[in-house]
Write a structure and sequence with these properties.
- The protein has 1 helix and 19 strands.
- It has an 18-stranded antiparallel beta barrel.
- With 264 residues, the chain is mainly β.
- Helices cover 3% and strands 68% of the residues.
Length: 264
């Protein structure tokens, strides 16, 4: 099966017009001058056909150029419906530079059974499943327990994550594969602060601190010794990410990205 840009545009043409969204990302650190700018225009629209909800969209570079054909980065489409208590969605995304195949994501969710299944695949000359993941939630005393097994067919490896939330201020997540294991304990210190240390079987550790700034805004800092300090600041329509590589006591050059969503 080959992907066709014309076919995708035909689907876009059958939907109703909607307001576009402009996301501008400014990347810095390993880039210099104007090469560090990466503004991206994201557009999407939605419509319904019977019991099926449809969404289509695209991402394109907003950098000035005389080669208009080079602007699109990707095209995507999504269909969502319900059947027998299951919410089912299928999403396909095509790289504008390679229209010969599409990345597929299929999701099925059953709210009554607290069960979800996700399948990632690729469709091109042939169809191949890349990974399968399931999540099952259940009550456990006064808290809740979730079990999430996953398997990658690409590298033939499996993983399972078990998470417990006591319903108050503490949650624990255990993640295990054949090669590595980790445990994360998350503690809500007060109404505005949460701290989450993670211990891994290779001896490495990381600590995440999340600070609520009110009105849905937050500042999150993640320290991984001898690796990096990552900061994420969400303030309304703005999102800023800062990555500071760490080698011993030395801090490398910062990588910064700033994003703002603008509806018009």
């Amino acid at each position: 099966m080959k992907c066709s840009a014309a076919a995708l545009l035909a689907v876009i043409g059958t939907t109703y017009a909607a307001k576009p969204q402009l996301s501008i990302s400014v990347q810095d650190g390993s880039f210099g001058g104007l090469d560090g700018l990466d503004p991206t225009l994201s557009w999407s629209t939605a419509a319904s056909s019977g019991d099926v909800d449809l969404e289509v969209g695209l991402e394109a570079s907003a950098l000035p150029t005389s080669d208009i054909a080079s602007l699109p980065k990707s095209y995507w489409g999504k269909a969502t419906t319900k059947n027998g208590g299951w919410g089912i969605s299928a999403r396909a995304e095509v790289d504008a530079k390679d229209l010969s195949c599409a990345e597929l994501e299929i999701n099925a969710d059953n709210a009554d059974d607290d069960l979800s299944i996700q399948i990632a695949a690729i469709a091109g000359e042939t169809f191949a499943v890349k990974s399968v993941e399931a999540t099952k939630g259940m009550e456990a005393g006064d808290g809740s327990l979730s079990i999430k097994p996953s398997y990658s067919l690409e590298d033939e490896s499996g993983e399972i994550a078990i998470a417990y939330d006591n319903g108050d201020k503490t949650s624990i997540e255990l993640t295990a594969s054949a090669d590595s294991q980790s445990v994360t304990i998350s503690q809500q210190v007060d109404a505005d602060n949460r701290i989450s240390p993670t211990l891994r079987s290779d001896g490495s550790i990381s600590v995440e601190w999340e600070k609520s700034l009110g009105d849905g805004n937050s500042l999150t800092a993640t320290l991984s010794p001898n690796e990096a300090l990552d900061l994420e600041w969400e303030d309304g329509a703005w999102t800023a990410n800062i990555n500071l590589p760490i080698d011993g006591t030395s801090i490398g050059g910062a990588n910064v990205s700033i994003k703002r969503d603008v509806n018009f």
